Amino acid sequence: MREFTLTEFWVIASGLWATLLLSAIAFLGGGLAGLGVALARTAPVKALRIAAGVFIDFFQGTPMLLQLFLVFYGLPVLGLKVNVWIAAAVGLTLHAGAFLGEIWRGGIQAVPRGQTEAADALGLDYWTRMRHVVLPQALRMSFAPTVGFLVQLIKGTSLAAIIGFVELSRSGQLVSSITYKPLLAFGLVAACYFAICFPLSRYSARLEKRFAVAG
Question: How many CA atoms lie within 13 A of 206 on its CB side?
């Protein structure tokens, strides 16, 4: 048994940094994927709508843990060697892409129909209409649920520990196992999660109220 020293604090801090970095990668990558999914879901081409719908149904209808397993064990079967960082980033990015795509699809469809009809009357094609008229309004309306999803994504990174990724919760488990002070170790982990997620949750709720009043 070891004492709880600065080294143990550093282990938890390293796990916190890994959680923040993985969350940022997944959120940014998922944002790009989600934008493509949202556009495909609202595209005039039926095949794109069906493909995007299948993608969303799969990632919303299966546990994130299973998705991480499929990436971690599935890519090597295809001849692609991946480490835990890549597997966790790819798995969470795909997961985030499906959920953000559906959030932003809702925002696109919430834009008043008169806006798109006016754009049609001006002779704007689909992509020009989406870029200059629909998406700016849709993303603004979707901002609050997007921040809310980010909170869930940050907490969801803890599942990456099952494939060997040492993030915040896993670092707390490691420290607990060598110091035999689980209350202190997991108390610090909980404090870190709270310090990150609580301000984001409050910000999301405030945005939701503001946009509801504006609407």
Answer: 6
d(CA 85, CA 60): 22
Terminal-to-terminal C-alpha distance of the chain: 59
CA distance 55 to 39: 13
Write down the pTM of the prediction.
Answer: 0.90
Domains and CATH numbers, the chain: 6-214 (1.10.3720.10)
Phi/psi of residue 123, nearest 5 degrees: 80, 20
Encoded tokens for 4: 């709880």
Alpha-carbon distance of 17 to 50, in angstroms, equals 38
Q: How far is CA 162 from the centre of its chain?
A: 18
DSSP state of 130: I
- pLDDT tens readout for residues 142-195: 888 999 999 999 999 999 999 999 999 999 999 999 988 999 999 999 999 999
